[in-house]
């Protein structure tokens, strides 16, 4: 269970790890709340960016057992890599604890948390190839210490 409570801005009820859904701007809601909202209004209730029902994605969180100290490393964490993210401005952001099974969408969310660039505005490039949402880091043979370029999507 979360030690911090998060609420759905549509209904003001707490979000649970089993009922968290996001849209392309990254805001999170209950599934029924965001479906009904988008069906009626076609935009995010928080930031007012355009949204469609196909934008909705479930967020999967892993619950930790009681007494978790925060420093126990499990088998999957031992296979993490560090990625450098290079913006067109030359700024480098480091993403730690990236797993080869992480999706490109998750990497975009990590970049948003560090840089503020929304996932729907990011294009990620590695070795001259654009990284496609729905694929995993492992699909591109990205290694520890690799650099991914992030460029803004043209509107």
From TrEMBL:
<keyword id="KW-0479">Metal-binding</keyword>
<dbReference type="GO" id="GO:0008270">
    <property type="term" value="F:zinc ion binding"/>
</dbReference>
<dbReference type="InterPro" id="IPR001841">
    <property type="entry name" value="Znf_RING"/>
</dbReference>
<dbReference type="InterPro" id="IPR050158">
    <property type="entry name" value="Ubiquitin_ubiquitin-like"/>
</dbReference>
<feature type="domain" description="RING-type">
    <location>
        <begin position="8"/>
        <end position="47"/>
    </location>
</feature>
<dbReference type="InterPro" id="IPR019956">
    <property type="entry name" value="Ubiquitin_dom"/>
</dbReference>
<dbReference type="Pfam" id="PF13639">
    <property type="entry name" value="zf-RING_2"/>
</dbReference>
<feature type="domain" description="Ubiquitin-like">
    <location>
        <begin position="81"/>
        <end position="155"/>
    </location>
</feature>
<protein>
    <submittedName>
        <fullName>Ubiquitin</fullName>
    </submittedName>
</protein>
<dbReference type="InterPro" id="IPR029071">
    <property type="entry name" value="Ubiquitin-like_domsf"/>
</dbReference>
<keyword id="KW-0862">Zinc</keyword>
<dbReference type="InterPro" id="IPR000626">
    <property type="entry name" value="Ubiquitin-like_dom"/>
</dbReference>
<keyword id="KW-0863">Zinc-finger</keyword>
<dbReference type="Pfam" id="PF00240">
    <property type="entry name" value="ubiquitin"/>
</dbReference>
<dbReference type="InterPro" id="IPR013083">
    <property type="entry name" value="Znf_RING/FYVE/PHD"/>
</dbReference>
């Amino acid at each position: 269970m979360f030690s911090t409570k998060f609420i759905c801005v549509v209904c003001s009820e707490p979000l649970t790890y089993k009922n968290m859904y996001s849209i392309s701007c990254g805001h999170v809601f209950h599934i029924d709340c965001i479906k009904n909202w988008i069906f009626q209004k076609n935009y995010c209730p928080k930031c007012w960016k355009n949204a469609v029902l196909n934008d909705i994605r479930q967020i999967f969180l892993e619950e930790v057992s009681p007494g978790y100290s925060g420093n126990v490393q499990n088998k999957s964490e031992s296979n993490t890599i560090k990625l450098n993210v290079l913006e067109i401005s030359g700024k480098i952001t480091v993403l730690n604890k990236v797993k080869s099974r992480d999706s490109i969408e998750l990497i975009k969310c990590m970049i948003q948390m560090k840089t503020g660039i929304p996932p729907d505005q990011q294009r990620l490039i590695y070795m001259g190839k654009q990284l496609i949402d729905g694929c995993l880091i492992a699909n591109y043979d990205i290694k520890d210490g690799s650099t991914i370029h992030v460029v803004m999507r043209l509107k």
